[in-house]
Amino acid sequence: MTGANSGIGRALVEALAARNGRVVLACRSEERTQPVLDALRANHPAAAATFLHLDLADLSSVRKAAASFLAVGGRLDVLVNNAAVAGTRALSADGFDLTYATNHIGPFLLTNLLLPRLLEAPEGRIVNVASAAHRQADHIDWSLLDRRDTPRRSAFHDYGVTKLMNILHARELARRLVGTRVTTYSLHPGAVASNIYRAVPQPLQGFLKLFMMSNEHGAVTPLYCATAPELRGVSGRYYAHASELDPSKVAQDDGLARELWERTERILT
């Protein structure tokens, strides 16, 4: 679980721990994650909770985290790509726009690196936490995936584009994984008062959160995609309110999904 020390991620790992699941909290800060681990261990002693250092905006960190996880061994049944940011004005360690690096490029690489372990599971699942904001994006400006020298303020539209990428990623993964036991899902958790808006200046950030749902409510659909037995064998679909829903027409474009995959692969080589 990426981004598991706050927001939807924290609520979701708590729900999984309550089912005695083995959860790995993949986060940037061990210090900020430790209280979450302590609470999980106190409230759910039968569950196993561990920390994995991961900065999705740093590709070397993504590679190191994946290698560390794979070296430990053990089964991987579900990968939840949850961490995301919005409203940033910064570059990643590799020179990408921070919003695109955190929300798409890093998760894409992490998923590819962990895929061999997911393929070994009796029923592997990949869950991409997207957003209804993807409906604001009617195309992808490929230059936004280029490395750049100076940062730019990413707007709500950029966040929507990255969420469109999350859906297309899950869709293309599903196509590539036909014939395996791994299935993929993308979803809209709802408008949640999570830490995703941490880069948005106050008082706008606080004002926006007044109209949003709790993290616990936001975790309902990701939990459904990660665990629902009726979704066994279903792959590449989009969900909201724990029900299947059609995403935008652009998000159903298989050619665009394939192009996104190929372009992302190229920038990672």
Fold blueprint:
Elements lengths: L6 H11 L4 E6 L2 H14 L4 E6 L5 H14 L5 E4 L16 H23 L4 E5 L26 H21 L6 E6 L15 H6 L5 H4 L1 H8 L9 E4 L2 E2 L9 H15 L1
Parallel strand pairs: 1-2, 3-4, 4-5, 5-6
Antiparallel strand pairs: 6-7
Helix pairs in contact: 3-4, 4-5, 5-9
pLDDT averaged over residues: 93
Number of discrete helical segments: 9
CATH architecture: 3-Layer(aba) Sandwich
Please name the fourth-level CATH homologous superfamily. Answer: NAD(P)-binding Rossmann-like Domain
Strand order of the largest sheet: 3-4-5-6-7
- Number of E-type strands: 7
Q: Write down the Rg.
A: 17 Å
The helix/strand class is alpha/beta
Quickly describe the structure:
The chain has helices at 7-17, 30-43, 59-72, 98-120, 156-176, 204-209, 215-218, 220-227, 254-268; strands spanning 22-27, 48-53, 78-81, 125-129, 183-188, 237-240, 243-244.
Please describe what this structure looks like:
The chain is α/β, with parallel strands linked by helices. It has 9 helices and 7 strands; from the N terminus they run αβαβαβαβαβαααββα. It has helices spanning 7-17, 30-43, 59-72, 98-120, 156-176, 204-209, 215-218, 220-227, 254-268; strands at 22-27, 48-53, 78-81, 125-129, 183-188, 237-240, 243-244. The strands form 2 sheets. Strands 3-4-5-6-7 form a 5-stranded mixed beta sheet, with helices on both faces. Strands 1-2 form a two-stranded parallel sheet. Helix 4 (98-120) runs parallel beside helix 5 (156-176) and helix 5 packs across helix 9 (254-268). The radius of gyration is 17 Å and the shape is globular.
